[in-house]
Amino acid sequence: MLPNRTEVLIVGAGPTGLALAVSLRQAGVDHLLIDRLPQGQNTSRAAVIHAHTLETLEPLGVTEALIARGLKLRRFAIRDRDHARLQLRFDNLPSSYPYILMLPQDETERVLGARLAALGGEVHRGVTATAATQGPAGARVTVASAEGEQEIEARYVVAGDGMRSLVREAAGIGFDGEPHEGSFVLADVRMRWALGRDEVSLFFSPGGMVVVAPLPNGSFRVVAAMEDAPELPGPADIQALVDARGPTAGENRVEEVLWSSRFRLHHRIARSYRAGRFLLMGDAAHVHSPAGGQGMNT
Ligand SMILES: Cc1cc2nc3c(=O)[nH]c(=O)nc-3n(C[C@H](O)[C@H](O)[C@H](O)COP(=O)(O)OP(=O)(O)OC[C@H]3O[C@@H](n4cnc5c(N)ncnc54)[C@H](O)[C@@H]3O)c2cc1C
């Protein structure tokens, strides 16, 4: 069983929950971090970490470890087939980190989790928040786990529980916005790519955009907007997207799909980030397009 009382109950151990737990641990603030999953999600999802995020994470002591695992990219181009329409460099960013760092989200979560463990903290896994209420003195959250149900009293409850946040619902905070038309394909692939491994390339084409970005382990991330994406995109689907929208020069051949997913977008923002004892962060507070790789960073 978990303690029945804590200062801060963090619901959700995604990147935001883990980062907050590290901060609270460093500040010596009593807290509990719970997640309904028995283990981390182990999928690559958000693959970009921006310069300012690396700066923001410095006090948490994880920036060096992230950089050691990631791939630094200094160039971004908007292309139309074989023509570069716009080329940007990150070298001149006024930052100690003048690049974008490519790193799959499961790696980022592992680094944050390892830092939390090194500070003596932990994620209580397999624990689901099922209800939350609040009064003037604090909040009360019902949690369910293999050991049964229990109530936890907390001075504050922080929602790191993602887009369908139970805490946000319990707080009665509206999540204004709408679903985005169409869907996105996301795939980490091994492929021959004539443009090389030091640029993020965004191709605009009549069929929709496709982004190709190198990942640290020699693979590439391909993201494309589609009207109705296949549920589990395979090599032929990704090849067809690259052929229809990408470069024609050189050899660009998808050899293997390591992980793929389809997702539908919402553009939504919480009406408030706080209601009394309940606070929102991450996807519980805002969700939007992955274009620009700002979701997890925000
Ligand atoms: C397929 C996919 C691809 C994506 N690609 C990109 C991308 O390319 N770039 C980008 O910037 N972003 C991307 N995102 C979004 C990015 O993953 C999120 O912005 C980021 O994970 C948000 O972090 P978070 O900590 O707020 O929430 P999440 O990572 O969603 O974590 C929420 C956690 O809360 C837990 N939880 C939920 N409800 C409960 C409950 N009731 N009790 C206990 N635990 C609970 C969940 O198990 C989960 O671990 C992608 C997302 C998906 C799904």
Give a structural overview.
Strands 1, 2, 8, 9, 10, 11, 19 and 20 form an 8-stranded mixed β-sheet that branches. With 298 residues, the chain is an alpha+beta fold. The mean pLDDT is 96. The protein has helices at 15-27, 51-57, 63-69, 105-118, 166-171, 235-245; strands at 5-11, 31-35, 48-49, 71-73, 75-80, 83-89, 100-102, 124-125, 128-135, 138-145, 148-159, 175-179, 183-192, 199-203, 210-214, 220-226, 253-263, 266-270, 274-275, 278-280, 286-287. The chain has 2 domains: 5-47 and 104-177 and 266-287, 3-Layer(bba) Sandwich (FAD/NAD(P)-binding domain); 183-263, 2-Layer Sandwich (Alpha-Beta Plaits), CATH 3.30.70. 41% of the residues are buried. It contains 6 helices and 21 strands. It binds flavin-adenine dinucleotide.
CATH topology of the largest domain: FAD/NAD(P)-binding domain
Described by the principal axes of the CA atoms, the overall outline is elongated
Which stretches of 5+ consecutive residues score pLDDT under 50?
Answer: none
CATH architecture of the largest domain: 3-Layer(bba) Sandwich
Sheet with most strands: 8 strands, mixed
Helix content: 10-25%
By DSSP, the count of extended strands is: 21
Structural class from helices and strands?
Answer: alpha+beta
Give the bound compounds.
flavin-adenine dinucleotide
CATH superfamily annotation of the largest domain: FAD/NAD(P)-binding domain
Q: Using the CA coordinates, give the radius of gyration.
A: 21 Å
Strand percentage lies at 35-45%
Mean pLDDT, to the nearest integer, reads: 96
The number of distinct structural domains comes to 2
CATH class identity of the largest domain: Alpha Beta
* Terminal Cα span: 33 Å
Number of helices: 6
Order of H and E elements:
EHEEHHEEEEHEEEEHEEEEEHEEEEE
